[in-house]
Predict the 3D structure of the following.
Amino acid sequence: MNRSRLILFGVLSCLAALAAPGAEVGLIKINGAIGPATASYITRAIEAAAERENRCLIIQLDTPGGSLESTKRIVQAFYASPVPTVVYVAPEGAWAGSAGCFITLAADVAAMAPATSIGAAHPVSIGPGGEEKTSEVMKEKQEQITGSFIEGIANRRGRNAEWARASVVESKAITADQALELHVIDLVAKDLPDLLRQLDEHEVNGKPLETADANVVEIPRTTQERLLQLLSHPELMMILMLVAIYGIIGELSNPGAILPGVVGAIALILVLYMATILPINSAGLALIGLSIVLFIMDIFAPSHGILTFGGIVSFLLGALMLFNRADPVFRLSLAYIIPATLVTAAFFIFVVGSGLRAQWLPVRVGREALLGRTAPARERIDAAGGRVFIEGEYWNAVSEVPIEPGQPVEIIAVHGLTLKVVPKQPPIR
């Protein structure tokens, strides 16, 4: 009887073990520039991994860099994280550049895939409005502050602080194998399963991670995070800026269209938001504004193409200067800039120009088009009536002054199908 009970207990224990959920490891993937959206995503993922009691959170990273302020938020989130954080620079060919170097060093475990690189964390000096600071004093000051920041990160995690500082001051970059040899990172793993095997015996705060048989559960971005990430691209801001310009100017040149104005207003609001998270150069923005003024001036005061040419040059230079060119993260490709310049010039010359000029042209259709026209009298015209021939048609006409057949008359009013005319005075010689 006792033996049967033991067997039954053993079977139930096995079934319970099979039904129980296995260990989990959280996973997020970061590709592209580091910005507020990235910081928000990583912070939320840490909270989600803690709620699920994940063994650790793996951040698969591939970035050329990004915002230093957002990087600070991520580093602080790593320090306060209740679950171990693992930064894995992958896949092969990935790069943890600039801000990515800070993030990798700040993790509890730093790992890289073969044929990846890390470093080149030299700060780009950006002042108000996005202008690059040229002062050597300011440059050195920022280097020292940023160098101390990354050195503190490396010391806290027990990594090579000397190389970390050199990555900032001297823009040094190394491969995964070199990083492992210099004790910049902890592991080199060829893929995610290999990373889990190596993490299994790796200790964080004196405890092994035990990830060999863990299930990897990816934590997706929310819709809001996806939208914020999308709005952090300089290329999108350039496109939205053009949409705002086209929509608003199109509405002003063709009142009552409504749709262009609504679309332009929405695009303008998004541009204003993006200007708060991207390093906008005020000089570049001013040049784009000047180009629009020059295009409009050429519509009202034709200059034989001089103002249009000036607008094209101004727009091109403004687009080149709109973002900080020293940081590859915020460089706009000429593949965007040149077509945008040509399309904008064509828009103002042909679309807006035609619309505005049409508003200043005299009416050429309808009865109003007959006012001021001259036509010959086909028969005698007086207060009782008569006829004139104009625009291929005969019209009834009346005149307070008798007009003889063949005499030219001028149309001064239209009443229904009857024209009121007066004798056309011959020019004074």
Observations:
- The first helix runs from residue 2 to 19.
